[in-house]
Amino acid sequence: MPIKQSVCIPILPQDAMPQEELLAKIAAIGYPAIEIWARDDNFHSLCETAARYGLQVISMIGHQSLQDGLNNPANHDRIEAELQLSIDLAAARGLSALVCFSGNHIPGMSEDVAIANTAAGLRRIAPYAEAKDITLNLELLNSKVDHPGYQCDNSAWGLATLRQVNSPRVKLLYDIYHMQIMEGDVTRTLTANLNAIGHIHTAGNPGRHELDDHQELNYRGICRALDDAGYTGYIGHEFRPRGALVAALRQAYEQCAGA
């Protein structure tokens, strides 16, 4: 079974073509799914348009904000309410996952306390996510290039948080691009922790561009290893194409599908 693939729509150039035309081309390549970031006024119409082309919207951001997140207990009431609304919308529209964020480092707060706070926030909403069959994916992001100060910036931090939550519906969003910057050893980390990985993102490093020969990651090899290890989730392409948009999406699809 080929690796399931999706396309993260918001990172693509929005002026390249009308959105409906883009969705039609994504479906024609062979992708079964797309992802979005914001839960906005266009959410329902986008889901309906995607469905017309046989595309499933599978993931979106569950709460605000990336910088001010779950590591701060003062945010827990707000985030729980935001996630509950997002879970309801996801369940109604057939999404399978929501993205969650630790937030940036808080001055004077230790790593252990930040992990405990993040886990406590997720534990509050985990039973609701379990009841609705929606996975909450805590995203791993690099703090070196793109998100200075972000706290959940390595797999060990994320795994420690998951152990304290102990829910089958709270997992990690392992972004290969971000973790290549922070720690490398991508294939070993992924295959050793498949039970903790709810979703995977891709992009070429350096630059966050296409999965081509201008970057250092062997995505064909990574996907082959994931397939051999029994990964059944999605790999979502979240890169900024330098060249032609549709050609870049086709190249990424064929590289990962051919693994």
Summarize the structure.
The protein is α/β, with parallel strands linked by helices. The protein has helices spanning 19-29, 43-52, 76-93, 111-132, 155-165, 176-182, 186-192, 219-229, 245-257; strands spanning 4-8, 33-35, 56-61, 97-100, 135-139, 170-175, 197-202, 234-237.
Oligomerization: single chain
CATH homologous superfamily (4th level) name: Divalent-metal-dependent TIM barrel enzymes
Count of separate structural domains: 1
Strand order in the sheet with the most strands: 1-2-3-4-5-6-7-8
As a percent range, the share of strand residues is 15-25%
Order of helices and strands: EHEHEHEHEHEHHEHEH
Q: For the residues shown, what is the average pLDDT?
A: 97
Q: What is the CATH architecture term?
A: Alpha-Beta Barrel
Shape: globular
